[in-house]
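Give me structure tokens for this 312-residue protein.
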Amino acid sequence: MAMRIKHENTTAVPDLALRVIKTELNGQRQNLSFLTEDKSTYYEQIFTSRKRWLENACRKLYNNTQRQSIAQALTDGANSTKNGYLLDKTRQIGICTMAKVACTNWKRVFLAMNNVNASKIPGPSIHGTVINYGITLNKYSVSEAATMLRNFTNVIFVRHPFDRVLSAYRDKIEPKPDGHYWKGYGESLVKKYNTKNESVYTYPSFELFVRHIVDSDVRSYNPHWQRYVDRCHPCSISYQFIGHQENLNEEANMVLHKLDISGIDEFPKRNKFYKMAPTNELRDSYFSQLKPELVQQLYNKYFEDFYLFGYI
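Here you go.
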């Protein structure tokens, strides 16, 4: 687990945290489809720039004694890291997948790269399928996995941390009285926060869900809101391609092009069973329910993710 960082100018954090909800930071979400220049060259510069940013940010946040080796990171991350990392041993390519960052479709892609037709496999079943076909790091020892991570071309896709938290809430919690996550989290959250000194909650509102995240140890986070630093260890593992969910289809297709993946025409489109309205279009309405102090606390929990991947 990456150690917590004491960052300066904390009085400015609430303004920053609210601003990232309201604005399109540094053009992260701009539609790049209008570009007429050679996109391959353009994205080569983008990917190089993001990699350089990450390397510099890691040096600023951690000194040499604080940065973990790959083997240490894998041991610290336990099975969540090894289960989440998909690989194609023939091409020596791997990706660290994150829940709520197109992980289902990336699993379809890597199954196809391993000659498995996953087009008809339902989304909920795809996660067990990659393990059954042995294309995760889970079946390898820490030493074997570390060697592959040092030598493979590594890929990671990220999205704005606040969007990912909201996506997890909308998909897993909001309100689903008969759902698995309601039974596992919803009922317990209502009981936890429904005290004599608090408002009475009848279902886990977004505010309650965020309070739960803020009050919890980051090491206990469910994979759907687990931090990038704790699952993918970006300061220990070198990622050659860092893609952004905000421009997913174009960037994913460009990564496939750069890696020269034959037989895959394009990255799969967003599954129809997901809620119709994209999360970023609803961000304002949900985060406006939160007090600025709570937004700051949530920002602090995900500070490393914000900083390392340039969402500042």
